[in-house]
Specification:
This protein is of the alpha+beta class. About 55% of the residues lie in helices and about 20% in strands. Among the domains are: about 90 residues, no CATH class; about 150 residues, Heat Shock Protein 90 (2-Layer Sandwich). The strands form 4 sheets. It has a 5-stranded antiparallel sheet, with helices on both faces. Strands 7-6-10-9-8 form a 5-stranded antiparallel sheet, sandwiched between helices.
Protein backbone atom coordinates (compact mmCIF):
# COMPACT_ATOMS: atom_id res chain seq x y z
CA UNK A 1 0.00 0.00 0.00
CA UNK A 2 1.42 3.39 -1.00
CA UNK A 3 2.15 5.83 1.78
CA UNK A 4 -0.12 8.86 1.66
CA UNK A 5 1.62 12.22 1.19
CA UNK A 6 0.17 15.18 3.03
CA UNK A 7 -0.94 18.32 1.24
CA UNK A 8 1.79 20.37 2.91
CA UNK A 9 4.40 17.86 1.77
CA UNK A 10 3.01 17.94 -1.76
CA UNK A 11 3.24 21.75 -1.85
CA UNK A 12 6.79 21.73 -0.45
CA UNK A 13 7.94 18.94 -2.76
CA UNK A 14 6.31 20.64 -5.73
CA UNK A 15 8.13 23.91 -5.02
CA UNK A 16 11.35 21.98 -4.47
CA UNK A 17 10.89 20.18 -7.80
CA UNK A 18 10.22 23.50 -9.57
CA UNK A 19 13.39 25.02 -8.10
CA UNK A 20 15.51 22.01 -9.02
CA UNK A 21 13.99 21.98 -12.51
CA UNK A 22 14.79 25.69 -12.87
CA UNK A 23 18.36 25.05 -11.76
CA UNK A 24 18.64 22.16 -14.22
CA UNK A 25 17.27 24.20 -17.15
CA UNK A 26 19.54 27.14 -16.30
CA UNK A 27 22.56 24.83 -16.04
CA UNK A 28 21.76 23.21 -19.38
CA UNK A 29 21.35 26.64 -21.01
CA UNK A 30 24.67 27.87 -19.58
CA UNK A 31 26.34 24.64 -20.65
CA UNK A 32 25.17 24.84 -24.25
CA UNK A 33 25.92 28.55 -24.45
CA UNK A 34 29.46 27.98 -23.15
CA UNK A 35 29.89 25.01 -25.47
CA UNK A 36 28.71 27.03 -28.48
CA UNK A 37 30.97 29.98 -27.66
CA UNK A 38 33.95 27.76 -26.94
CA UNK A 39 33.42 25.73 -30.11
CA UNK A 40 33.01 28.87 -32.23
CA UNK A 41 36.23 30.44 -30.92
CA UNK A 42 38.10 27.14 -31.25
CA UNK A 43 36.97 26.71 -34.86
CA UNK A 44 38.06 30.22 -35.79
CA UNK A 45 41.46 29.69 -34.20
CA UNK A 46 41.72 26.31 -35.90
CA UNK A 47 41.04 27.81 -39.34
CA UNK A 48 43.80 30.38 -38.79
CA UNK A 49 46.21 27.66 -37.72
CA UNK A 50 45.35 25.44 -40.67
CA UNK A 51 45.74 28.31 -43.11
CA UNK A 52 49.18 29.10 -41.69
CA UNK A 53 50.25 25.46 -41.91
CA UNK A 54 48.96 25.13 -45.45
CA UNK A 55 50.81 28.28 -46.49
CA UNK A 56 53.99 26.81 -45.02
CA UNK A 57 53.52 23.67 -47.10
CA UNK A 58 52.82 25.78 -50.16
CA UNK A 59 56.01 27.72 -49.55
CA UNK A 60 57.99 24.47 -49.48
CA UNK A 61 56.34 23.29 -52.71
CA UNK A 62 56.96 26.65 -54.37
CA UNK A 63 60.63 26.48 -53.36
CA UNK A 64 60.96 23.00 -54.82
CA UNK A 65 59.23 24.14 -58.00
CA UNK A 66 61.53 27.10 -58.47
CA UNK A 67 64.62 25.04 -57.70
CA UNK A 68 63.58 22.39 -60.19
CA UNK A 69 63.06 25.08 -62.85
CA UNK A 70 66.53 26.41 -62.24
CA UNK A 71 67.99 22.92 -62.43
CA UNK A 72 66.14 22.26 -65.68
CA UNK A 73 67.49 25.54 -67.13
CA UNK A 74 71.04 24.52 -66.30
CA UNK A 75 70.57 21.16 -67.93
CA UNK A 76 68.97 22.56 -71.08
CA UNK A 77 72.10 24.47 -72.13
CA UNK A 78 74.48 21.52 -71.84
CA UNK A 79 75.55 20.20 -75.23
CA UNK A 80 76.43 16.88 -73.67
CA UNK A 81 72.72 16.11 -73.36
CA UNK A 82 71.89 17.22 -76.91
CA UNK A 83 74.75 15.77 -78.96
CA UNK A 84 76.15 12.46 -77.77
CA UNK A 85 78.87 12.49 -80.38
CA UNK A 86 80.01 15.85 -79.12
CA UNK A 87 80.12 14.43 -75.65
CA UNK A 88 82.77 11.94 -76.73
CA UNK A 89 85.29 14.67 -77.74
CA UNK A 90 84.62 17.89 -75.76
CA UNK A 91 82.21 17.25 -72.80
CA UNK A 92 84.40 16.54 -69.83
CA UNK A 93 83.80 19.98 -68.30
CA UNK A 94 80.09 19.87 -69.10
CA UNK A 95 79.75 16.44 -67.51
CA UNK A 96 81.39 17.71 -64.36
CA UNK A 97 79.12 20.76 -64.38
CA UNK A 98 76.01 18.57 -64.74
CA UNK A 99 76.95 16.29 -61.83
CA UNK A 100 77.83 19.33 -59.72
CA UNK A 101 74.46 20.93 -60.45
CA UNK A 102 72.64 17.76 -59.41
CA UNK A 103 74.63 17.50 -56.16
CA UNK A 104 74.12 21.19 -55.40
CA UNK A 105 70.37 20.76 -55.85
CA UNK A 106 70.29 17.93 -53.31
CA UNK A 107 72.51 19.86 -50.93
CA UNK A 108 70.45 23.06 -51.08
CA UNK A 109 67.08 21.30 -50.69
CA UNK A 110 66.90 19.48 -47.35
CA UNK A 111 63.73 17.65 -48.37
CA UNK A 112 65.39 16.02 -51.40
CA UNK A 113 67.00 12.63 -51.05
CA UNK A 114 68.44 12.16 -54.58
CA UNK A 115 68.15 13.47 -58.15
CA UNK A 116 68.28 11.61 -61.47
CA UNK A 117 68.50 12.77 -65.05
CA UNK A 118 67.40 10.76 -68.06
CA UNK A 119 68.29 11.98 -71.57
CA UNK A 120 66.71 10.94 -74.82
CA UNK A 121 69.57 8.54 -75.58
CA UNK A 122 68.87 6.22 -72.63
CA UNK A 123 71.67 7.66 -70.57
CA UNK A 124 71.13 8.00 -66.83
CA UNK A 125 72.89 10.40 -64.48
CA UNK A 126 72.30 10.78 -60.79
CA UNK A 127 73.59 11.66 -57.35
CA UNK A 128 73.08 8.09 -56.13
CA UNK A 129 72.76 4.71 -57.67
CA UNK A 130 69.27 4.53 -59.14
CA UNK A 131 67.58 1.75 -57.19
CA UNK A 132 63.93 2.94 -57.37
CA UNK A 133 61.79 0.96 -59.69
CA UNK A 134 59.71 3.84 -61.07
CA UNK A 135 57.54 3.26 -64.12
CA UNK A 136 59.34 5.60 -66.53
CA UNK A 137 56.79 5.04 -69.27
CA UNK A 138 54.00 6.18 -66.95
CA UNK A 139 56.10 9.21 -65.98
CA UNK A 140 56.63 10.09 -69.65
CA UNK A 141 52.88 9.94 -70.23
CA UNK A 142 52.22 12.19 -67.27
CA UNK A 143 54.85 14.69 -68.43
CA UNK A 144 53.38 14.69 -71.91
CA UNK A 145 50.01 15.67 -70.43
CA UNK A 146 51.65 18.55 -68.51
CA UNK A 147 54.47 19.91 -70.71
CA UNK A 148 56.79 22.30 -68.96
CA UNK A 149 55.17 21.60 -65.57
CA UNK A 150 56.50 19.87 -62.51
CA UNK A 151 54.42 16.82 -61.61
CA UNK A 152 54.23 14.87 -58.35
CA UNK A 153 54.46 11.15 -58.88
CA UNK A 154 53.67 8.29 -56.52
CA UNK A 155 53.75 4.58 -57.18
CA UNK A 156 52.52 1.60 -55.21
CA UNK A 157 55.31 -0.17 -53.39
CA UNK A 158 57.55 2.92 -53.29
CA UNK A 159 57.34 5.14 -50.22
CA UNK A 160 59.14 8.18 -51.65
CA UNK A 161 57.35 10.84 -53.67
CA UNK A 162 59.04 11.87 -56.94
CA UNK A 163 59.03 15.27 -58.63
CA UNK A 164 59.28 14.99 -62.40
CA UNK A 165 60.02 17.73 -64.94
CA UNK A 166 61.03 17.80 -68.58
CA UNK A 167 63.83 20.07 -69.80
CA UNK A 168 64.28 21.43 -73.31
CA UNK A 169 67.03 22.64 -75.64
CA UNK A 170 67.37 26.18 -76.91
CA UNK A 171 65.14 25.20 -79.80
CA UNK A 172 62.46 23.97 -77.32
CA UNK A 173 63.14 20.38 -78.23
CA UNK A 174 62.63 17.89 -75.33
CA UNK A 175 66.07 16.77 -74.27
CA UNK A 176 65.27 14.64 -71.24
CA UNK A 177 63.57 14.49 -67.83
CA UNK A 178 64.61 15.09 -64.28
CA UNK A 179 63.29 12.88 -61.43
CA UNK A 180 63.73 14.34 -57.93
CA UNK A 181 63.20 11.79 -55.14
CA UNK A 182 61.92 13.43 -51.96
CA UNK A 183 62.52 12.19 -48.41
CA UNK A 184 59.92 10.08 -46.64
CA UNK A 185 59.23 12.70 -43.99
CA UNK A 186 58.84 15.73 -46.25
CA UNK A 187 55.20 16.32 -45.25
CA UNK A 188 55.59 14.84 -41.79
CA UNK A 189 58.04 17.58 -40.89
CA UNK A 190 55.63 20.29 -42.01
CA UNK A 191 52.51 18.91 -40.35
CA UNK A 192 54.13 17.48 -37.20
CA UNK A 193 53.48 20.51 -35.01
CA UNK A 194 49.95 21.03 -36.32
CA UNK A 195 49.11 17.35 -35.92
CA UNK A 196 50.36 17.35 -32.35
CA UNK A 197 48.61 20.55 -31.30
CA UNK A 198 45.28 19.95 -33.04
CA UNK A 199 45.27 16.15 -32.59
CA UNK A 200 44.28 15.99 -36.26
CA UNK A 201 44.77 13.61 -39.16
CA UNK A 202 46.22 15.11 -42.36
CA UNK A 203 46.04 14.08 -46.01
CA UNK A 204 47.58 15.80 -49.06
CA UNK A 205 45.96 15.29 -52.47
CA UNK A 206 47.25 16.17 -55.91
CA UNK A 207 43.98 17.22 -57.53
CA UNK A 208 45.51 17.53 -61.01
CA UNK A 209 46.31 13.82 -61.06
CA UNK A 210 43.75 12.74 -58.43
CA UNK A 211 46.45 11.12 -56.32
CA UNK A 212 46.89 10.86 -52.60
CA UNK A 213 50.43 12.02 -51.85
CA UNK A 214 50.47 11.82 -48.06
CA UNK A 215 48.19 10.76 -45.17
CA UNK A 216 48.58 10.17 -41.44
CA UNK A 217 45.60 7.79 -41.27
CA UNK A 218 44.60 4.99 -43.67
CA UNK A 219 40.92 5.69 -42.95
CA UNK A 220 41.30 9.39 -43.73
CA UNK A 221 43.32 8.57 -46.85
CA UNK A 222 40.68 6.15 -48.15
CA UNK A 223 37.96 8.73 -47.52
CA UNK A 224 39.84 11.43 -49.43
CA UNK A 225 40.75 9.15 -52.34
CA UNK A 226 37.12 8.10 -52.70
CA UNK A 227 35.95 11.72 -52.90
CA UNK A 228 38.84 12.78 -55.15
CA UNK A 229 37.89 10.08 -57.63
CA UNK A 230 34.28 11.34 -57.77
CA UNK A 231 34.62 15.11 -57.99
CA UNK A 232 37.29 17.79 -57.48
CA UNK A 233 37.42 19.69 -54.21
CA UNK A 234 36.88 23.38 -54.74
CA UNK A 235 34.78 24.46 -51.75
CA UNK A 236 37.13 25.33 -48.89
CA UNK A 237 34.20 25.57 -46.40
CA UNK A 238 33.03 22.03 -47.09
CA UNK A 239 32.58 20.05 -43.88
CA UNK A 240 32.42 16.28 -43.81
CA UNK A 241 32.38 13.94 -40.81
CA UNK A 242 34.38 10.74 -40.43
CA UNK A 243 34.80 8.27 -37.59
CA UNK A 244 38.52 7.59 -37.10
CA UNK A 245 39.77 5.42 -34.21
CA UNK A 246 36.34 5.60 -32.57
CA UNK A 247 36.45 9.43 -32.55
CA UNK A 248 34.30 11.71 -34.67
CA UNK A 249 36.32 14.14 -36.82
CA UNK A 250 35.35 17.19 -38.88
CA UNK A 251 37.00 17.74 -42.27
CA UNK A 252 38.56 21.10 -43.16
CA UNK A 253 39.92 21.70 -46.67
CA UNK A 254 42.57 24.08 -47.95
CA UNK A 255 43.35 24.21 -51.70
CA UNK A 256 45.95 26.16 -53.66
CA UNK A 257 44.66 26.52 -57.19
CA UNK A 258 48.13 27.31 -58.56
CA UNK A 259 49.87 24.11 -57.47
CA UNK A 260 46.72 21.99 -57.48
CA UNK A 261 47.33 20.67 -53.96
CA UNK A 262 44.48 19.99 -51.56
CA UNK A 263 45.20 19.83 -47.82
CA UNK A 264 42.64 17.84 -45.85
CA UNK A 265 42.57 18.22 -42.08
CA UNK A 266 40.44 15.96 -39.89
CA UNK A 267 40.04 17.73 -36.53
CA UNK A 268 38.45 15.69 -33.70
CA UNK A 269 35.25 17.17 -32.30
CA UNK A 270 36.67 16.90 -28.80
CA UNK A 271 39.32 19.47 -29.70
CA UNK A 272 36.69 22.18 -30.10
CA UNK A 273 35.28 21.53 -26.64
CA UNK A 274 38.56 21.51 -24.73
CA UNK A 275 38.01 23.17 -21.38
CA UNK A 276 34.33 22.26 -21.42
CA UNK A 277 34.95 19.77 -18.60
CA UNK A 278 36.10 22.64 -16.40
CA UNK A 279 33.01 24.66 -17.25
CA UNK A 280 30.80 21.64 -16.52
CA UNK A 281 32.53 21.15 -13.17
CA UNK A 282 31.95 24.78 -12.21
CA UNK A 283 28.29 24.59 -13.27
CA UNK A 284 27.75 21.35 -11.35
CA UNK A 285 29.42 22.71 -8.22
CA UNK A 286 27.34 25.91 -8.29
CA UNK A 287 24.15 23.95 -9.02
CA UNK A 288 24.91 21.43 -6.25
CA UNK A 289 25.53 24.20 -3.71
CA UNK A 290 22.30 25.90 -4.73
CA UNK A 291 20.34 22.65 -4.52
CA UNK A 292 21.80 21.86 -1.08
CA UNK A 293 20.80 25.31 0.17
CA UNK A 294 17.28 24.92 -1.28
CA UNK A 295 16.89 21.44 0.21
CA UNK A 296 18.13 22.64 3.62
CA UNK A 297 15.66 25.53 3.63
CA UNK A 298 12.91 23.20 2.42
CA UNK A 299 13.49 20.70 5.22
CA UNK A 300 13.56 23.49 7.75
CA UNK A 301 10.26 24.79 6.42
CA UNK A 302 8.90 21.23 6.39
CA UNK A 303 9.92 20.73 9.99
CA UNK A 304 8.34 23.97 11.18
CA UNK A 305 5.05 23.36 9.32
CA UNK A 306 4.64 19.67 8.70
CA UNK A 307 5.83 18.33 12.07
CA UNK A 308 2.96 19.91 14.06
CA UNK A 309 0.50 18.70 11.44
CA UNK A 310 1.89 15.16 11.64
CA UNK A 311 1.60 15.18 15.43
CA UNK A 312 -1.97 16.42 15.25
CA UNK A 313 -2.74 13.80 12.59
CA UNK A 314 -1.18 11.11 14.80
CA UNK A 315 -3.41 12.30 17.62
CA UNK A 316 -6.45 11.95 15.37
CA UNK A 317 -5.52 8.37 14.38
CA UNK A 318 -4.72 7.41 17.96
CA UNK A 319 -7.95 8.92 19.19
CA UNK A 320 -9.97 7.07 16.53
CA UNK A 321 -8.46 3.73 17.69
CA UNK A 322 -7.75 4.07 21.40
CA UNK A 323 -9.71 7.21 22.27
CA UNK A 324 -6.46 8.56 23.79
CA UNK A 325 -4.69 11.91 23.25
CA UNK A 326 -0.91 12.24 22.92
CA UNK A 327 0.35 15.38 24.70
CA UNK A 328 2.22 17.82 22.45
CA UNK A 329 4.50 20.68 23.49
CA UNK A 330 4.67 23.59 21.06
CA UNK A 331 7.74 25.82 20.99
CA UNK A 332 5.83 28.61 19.25
CA UNK A 333 2.49 30.07 20.15
CA UNK A 334 0.88 29.85 16.73
CA UNK A 335 -2.24 28.56 14.98
CA UNK A 336 -1.09 24.93 15.35
CA UNK A 337 -1.28 25.19 19.14
CA UNK A 338 -4.78 26.67 18.86
CA UNK A 339 -5.76 23.83 16.55
CA UNK A 340 -4.41 21.26 19.02
CA UNK A 341 -6.25 22.82 21.98
CA UNK A 342 -9.52 22.83 20.01
CA UNK A 343 -8.94 19.19 19.09
CA UNK A 344 -8.38 18.22 22.75
CA UNK A 345 -11.62 19.90 23.81
CA UNK A 346 -13.51 18.20 20.98
CA UNK A 347 -11.98 14.79 21.90
CA UNK A 348 -13.13 15.10 25.52
CA UNK A 349 -16.68 15.92 24.41
CA UNK A 350 -16.67 12.98 21.96
CA UNK A 351 -15.48 10.57 24.67
CA UNK A 352 -18.28 11.62 26.98
CA UNK A 353 -20.81 11.29 24.18
CA UNK A 354 -19.50 7.84 23.15
CA UNK A 355 -19.70 6.53 26.72
CA UNK A 356 -23.28 7.74 27.06
CA UNK A 357 -24.28 6.33 23.67
CA UNK A 358 -22.60 2.98 24.37
CA UNK A 359 -24.45 2.54 27.66
CA UNK A 360 -27.74 3.41 25.99
CA UNK A 361 -27.07 0.96 23.14
CA UNK A 362 -26.41 -1.90 25.58
CA UNK A 363 -29.66 -1.21 27.37
CA UNK A 364 -31.54 -1.09 24.07
CA UNK A 365 -30.02 -4.37 22.86
CA UNK A 366 -30.84 -6.20 26.07
CA UNK A 367 -34.38 -4.88 25.95
CA UNK A 368 -34.69 -5.97 22.29
CA UNK A 369 -33.48 -9.48 23.16
CA UNK A 370 -36.01 -9.77 25.98
CA UNK A 371 -38.79 -8.68 23.63
CA UNK A 372 -37.72 -11.20 20.98
CA UNK A 373 -37.63 -14.03 23.53
CA UNK A 374 -41.05 -13.11 24.84
CA UNK A 375 -42.52 -13.53 21.34
CA UNK A 376 -41.64 -17.24 21.22
CA UNK A 377 -42.98 -18.87 24.41
CA UNK A 378 -46.78 -18.45 24.72
CA UNK A 379 -47.90 -20.27 21.58
CA UNK A 380 -45.76 -23.33 22.36
CA UNK A 381 -46.98 -23.56 25.94
CA UNK A 382 -50.60 -23.43 24.76
CA UNK A 383 -50.10 -26.32 22.30
CA UNK A 384 -48.25 -28.40 24.87
CA UNK A 385 -51.04 -28.21 27.39
CA UNK A 386 -53.54 -29.20 24.67
CA UNK A 387 -51.40 -32.27 23.98
CA UNK A 388 -51.29 -33.21 27.67
CA UNK A 389 -55.07 -32.93 27.77
CA UNK A 390 -55.47 -35.22 24.76
CA UNK A 391 -53.12 -37.87 26.13
CA UNK A 392 -54.78 -37.82 29.54
CA UNK A 393 -58.14 -38.39 27.90
CA UNK A 394 -56.73 -41.44 26.16
CA UNK A 395 -55.53 -42.82 29.56
CA UNK A 396 -51.92 -43.07 28.47
CA UNK A 397 -50.35 -42.34 31.80
CA UNK A 398 -46.67 -43.29 30.99
CA UNK A 399 -46.68 -41.02 28.00
CA UNK A 400 -48.16 -38.24 30.07
CA UNK A 401 -45.24 -38.62 32.46
CA UNK A 402 -42.68 -38.38 29.66
CA UNK A 403 -44.40 -35.40 28.09
CA UNK A 404 -44.69 -33.66 31.42
CA UNK A 405 -41.00 -34.25 32.17
CA UNK A 406 -39.98 -32.80 28.80
CA UNK A 407 -42.34 -29.88 29.27
CA UNK A 408 -40.89 -29.21 32.69
CA UNK A 409 -37.38 -29.14 31.25
CA UNK A 410 -38.52 -26.80 28.48
CA UNK A 411 -40.20 -24.39 30.92
CA UNK A 412 -37.15 -24.42 33.19
CA UNK A 413 -34.85 -23.77 30.22
CA UNK A 414 -37.04 -21.04 28.73
CA UNK A 415 -38.07 -18.92 31.67
CA UNK A 416 -36.14 -20.35 34.59
CA UNK A 417 -32.91 -18.44 33.86
CA UNK A 418 -32.18 -14.82 32.93
CA UNK A 419 -28.93 -15.54 31.06
CA UNK A 420 -28.86 -14.82 27.32
CA UNK A 421 -26.08 -17.23 26.31
CA UNK A 422 -25.87 -20.98 26.92
CA UNK A 423 -23.63 -23.76 25.70
CA UNK A 424 -24.44 -25.66 22.53
CA UNK A 425 -24.88 -28.74 24.72
CA UNK A 426 -27.70 -27.06 26.66
CA UNK A 427 -29.38 -25.92 23.44
CA UNK A 428 -29.20 -29.44 21.95
CA UNK A 429 -30.79 -30.93 25.11
CA UNK A 430 -33.58 -28.37 24.84
CA UNK A 431 -34.20 -29.39 21.20
CA UNK A 432 -34.30 -33.03 22.29
CA UNK A 433 -37.00 -32.32 24.90
CA UNK A 434 -38.94 -30.28 22.36
CA UNK A 435 -38.83 -32.97 19.65
CA UNK A 436 -39.67 -35.71 22.23
CA UNK A 437 -43.02 -34.05 22.88
CA UNK A 438 -43.80 -33.75 19.16
CA UNK A 439 -42.76 -37.33 18.49
CA UNK A 440 -45.69 -38.31 20.77
CA UNK A 441 -47.97 -36.16 18.60
CA UNK A 442 -46.71 -37.80 15.38
CA UNK A 443 -47.04 -41.31 16.94
CA UNK A 444 -43.68 -42.48 15.64
CA UNK A 445 -43.98 -40.65 12.32
CA UNK A 446 -41.31 -38.06 13.26
CA UNK A 447 -37.60 -39.02 13.32
CA UNK A 448 -34.71 -36.97 14.68
CA UNK A 449 -30.99 -37.34 13.82
CA UNK A 450 -28.21 -35.15 15.25
CA UNK A 451 -24.46 -35.06 14.74
CA UNK A 452 -22.56 -32.57 16.88
CA UNK A 453 -18.80 -33.02 17.50
CA UNK A 454 -17.92 -33.16 21.17
CA UNK A 455 -15.49 -30.24 20.93
CA UNK A 456 -18.32 -27.95 19.78
CA UNK A 457 -20.64 -28.71 22.70
CA UNK A 458 -18.76 -26.33 24.98
CA UNK A 459 -19.11 -23.34 22.57
CA UNK A 460 -21.64 -20.65 23.47
CA UNK A 461 -24.78 -19.83 21.54
CA UNK A 462 -27.73 -17.51 22.15
CA UNK A 463 -30.47 -19.14 24.15
CA UNK A 464 -33.50 -20.31 22.13
CA UNK A 465 -31.71 -20.15 18.75
CA UNK A 466 -32.35 -23.65 17.39
CA UNK A 467 -35.76 -24.53 18.93
CA UNK A 468 -37.77 -21.93 16.93
CA UNK A 469 -36.22 -23.24 13.69
CA UNK A 470 -37.20 -26.82 14.62
CA UNK A 471 -40.68 -25.55 15.50
CA UNK A 472 -40.99 -24.02 11.99
CA UNK A 473 -40.07 -27.42 10.51
CA UNK A 474 -42.81 -29.19 12.45
CA UNK A 475 -45.51 -26.57 12.00
CA UNK A 476 -44.91 -25.64 8.36
CA UNK A 477 -42.64 -28.18 6.62
CA UNK A 478 -44.70 -31.18 7.83
CA UNK A 479 -48.09 -29.50 7.63
CA UNK A 480 -50.65 -32.22 6.76
CA UNK A 481 -48.07 -35.04 7.11
CA UNK A 482 -47.81 -37.53 9.96
CA UNK A 483 -45.43 -40.12 8.59
CA UNK A 484 -41.86 -40.27 7.28
CA UNK A 485 -40.99 -36.90 8.76
CA UNK A 486 -37.24 -36.38 9.41
CA UNK A 487 -35.36 -33.56 11.15
CA UNK A 488 -31.55 -33.52 11.03
CA UNK A 489 -29.25 -31.29 13.10
CA UNK A 490 -25.53 -31.27 12.11
CA UNK A 491 -22.87 -28.98 13.61
CA UNK A 492 -19.48 -28.28 11.98
CA UNK A 493 -16.42 -26.20 12.66
CA UNK A 494 -15.66 -23.19 10.38
CA UNK A 495 -12.54 -21.08 10.01
CA UNK A 496 -13.82 -18.41 12.39
CA UNK A 497 -16.46 -20.14 14.48
CA UNK A 498 -19.02 -22.87 13.80
CA UNK A 499 -22.20 -23.53 11.84
CA UNK A 500 -25.32 -25.62 12.53
CA UNK A 501 -27.46 -27.06 9.70
CA UNK A 502 -31.15 -27.84 10.60
CA UNK A 503 -32.70 -29.80 7.72
CA UNK A 504 -36.11 -31.34 7.07
CA UNK A 505 -37.61 -33.45 4.30
CA UNK A 506 -40.83 -31.46 4.24
CA UNK A 507 -42.68 -29.61 1.50
CA UNK A 508 -39.98 -26.97 0.93
CA UNK A 509 -40.50 -23.40 -0.25
CA UNK A 510 -40.48 -21.78 -3.64
CA UNK A 511 -39.06 -18.40 -2.56
CA UNK A 512 -36.69 -17.82 0.37
CA UNK A 513 -35.27 -14.38 -0.43
CA UNK A 514 -37.83 -12.44 1.67
CA UNK A 515 -37.73 -14.61 4.80
CA UNK A 516 -34.97 -12.55 6.45
CA UNK A 517 -36.13 -9.17 5.10
CA UNK A 518 -36.35 -6.54 7.83
CA UNK A 519 -38.59 -3.94 6.21
CA UNK A 520 -42.38 -3.95 6.34
CA UNK A 521 -42.82 -4.11 2.54
CA UNK A 522 -40.96 -7.48 2.37
CA UNK A 523 -42.51 -8.88 5.54
CA UNK A 524 -43.24 -12.64 5.19
CA UNK A 525 -46.66 -14.08 5.60
CA UNK A 526 -48.00 -14.65 9.09
CA UNK A 527 -46.75 -17.82 10.71
CA UNK A 528 -43.99 -18.43 8.16
CA UNK A 529 -40.52 -17.06 8.79
CA UNK A 530 -41.17 -14.75 11.75
CA UNK A 531 -39.12 -16.93 14.12
CA UNK A 532 -36.28 -17.23 11.63
CA UNK A 533 -36.14 -13.47 11.14
CA UNK A 534 -36.12 -12.89 14.91
CA UNK A 535 -33.26 -15.35 15.42
CA UNK A 536 -31.29 -13.77 12.55
CA UNK A 537 -31.65 -10.35 14.20
CA UNK A 538 -30.63 -11.66 17.65
CA UNK A 539 -27.49 -13.31 16.26
CA UNK A 540 -26.40 -10.13 14.48
CA UNK A 541 -26.96 -8.05 17.60
CA UNK A 542 -24.93 -10.43 19.73
CA UNK A 543 -22.15 -11.66 17.42
CA UNK A 544 -21.93 -9.02 14.67
CA UNK A 545 -23.25 -8.58 11.15
CA UNK A 546 -21.27 -11.57 9.78
CA UNK A 547 -23.29 -13.94 11.96
CA UNK A 548 -26.86 -14.91 11.22
CA UNK A 549 -28.97 -17.36 9.25
CA UNK A 550 -28.95 -18.62 5.69
CA UNK A 551 -31.97 -20.47 4.20
CA UNK A 552 -31.93 -22.88 1.25
CA UNK A 553 -35.04 -24.77 0.12
CA UNK A 554 -36.16 -26.97 -2.76
CA UNK A 555 -39.86 -27.18 -3.39
CA UNK A 556 -41.14 -30.70 -2.60
CA UNK A 557 -37.82 -31.91 -1.15
CA UNK A 558 -37.17 -29.93 2.00
CA UNK A 559 -35.46 -26.97 3.60
CA UNK A 560 -32.06 -26.38 5.25
CA UNK A 561 -31.57 -23.51 7.69
CA UNK A 562 -27.90 -22.81 8.51
CA UNK A 563 -26.96 -20.88 11.62
CA UNK A 564 -23.55 -19.16 11.45
CA UNK A 565 -21.79 -18.10 14.65
CA UNK A 566 -18.68 -15.92 14.23
CA UNK A 567 -16.75 -16.04 17.46
CA UNK A 568 -14.76 -13.05 18.72
CA UNK A 569 -11.40 -12.72 16.93
CA UNK A 570 -12.55 -14.86 13.98
CA UNK A 571 -12.57 -13.92 10.30
CA UNK A 572 -15.63 -13.30 8.15
CA UNK A 573 -17.68 -16.32 7.21
Amino acid sequence: MLKRISTVNRIIYFNLAILILFIGITSVFVYYYAKSSLSKNSRQETLRTLSSTSEQAESMIYSLNQSSKLLASKMSVLNILQYPSYYALHSSNEYTEMISALNDFVFLNENVESTFLFDNYDNTYGTKYFDYDYDLLQIDEALADSPGQMIWYTQDGISQIALCRQFYSATLKPVGKIIIVLKDDIFRTIFQWQQHELMSEVSVVDTKNNKLLYTTSPAAGAFIQNHASQKPFRDVSLHEHLLINDRMHTLYLYENTGNGFLYCYFIPESYFTQGLEYIISVILIIAAIYVIIVIALTFRLNKSINRPLKLIGLNLRTFSIKKDIIPIEFTHNDEFEDLYQNFCEMAHRINRLVETTYEQEILNKEQEILILQAQINPHFIYNTFELINSVAISHQAPQVCSITKSLSNIMRYTIGSEQFEVTLKDEMEHIHDYITIHQERFMGGLSYIHDVPAELLRHNILKLTLQPIVENCILHAFKGRWKNCLITVVARKTGNGFAIDISDNGCGMEHTENILAADEHNKPKKGNGIAVKNIHRRLQIRYGSESGIHVESVLGKGTTVTVYIVEQGGENV
